[in-house]
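We treat protein structure as text, and this decision shapes the records that our systems exchange. The tokens are whole numbers drawn from a learned vocabulary of local backbone shapes. Below, we set out a record of this kind in full and without editing:
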Amino acid sequence: MTALDFSFFTWDVFRSYVLGGLWFSLGLTVIATLGGIFFGTLLALMRLSGIKPLEMIAAVYVNGMRSIPLLMVLLWFFLLVPLVIGRPIGAEGSAVITFIAFEAAYFSEIMRAGIQSIPRGQVFAGYAMGMSYAQNMKLVILPQAFRNMLPVLMTQTIILFQDTSLVYIITAHDLLHGFTVAGNNLSHPREAYILAAVLYFVICYTLSNGVKRLQQKIAIIR
């Protein structure tokens, strides 16, 4: 068995092959998180609106998305959407659309739980002050729900970052793709995959520690 050799991995290799993929993975994570929270919050409000058609539409979307593997959704958008709109949207565009649409379903359930965790007395107090439903949500309920669910939202964001490695299947230039190309071009594929795993671990472990500290601070505030 040939010994592993990591000497090939220099700063120039990292900059030429990996850095662009790292920025794409981080950028996709940020965009999908913001978009997922935005649309997820709308879906949560639809499910809690008390309006049956809105509840049904949101429930079908959320339950449907949560029942389908992300990889399959990614391939759907990459292969089928261009057929529908008549032009390609590219691997990166497909990745952004897929992750926002998919993560919205998961963030929706997180936000719904956060909204329902607010004591009903505060909801009634808002109405007693003359607030409308929208004002009550904007000024009373949602700020508290976001604060309560922030650690869970960040945990889902870490999972999202890990899932960005799936865009490799549609040849998007993400972090894993950068390591793969570097390993193949420089004849060190095993070492490249090991280094990719190490970098994923370092990033996710650092973020996980940040979530733990955030949970402690929120617990103190409460």
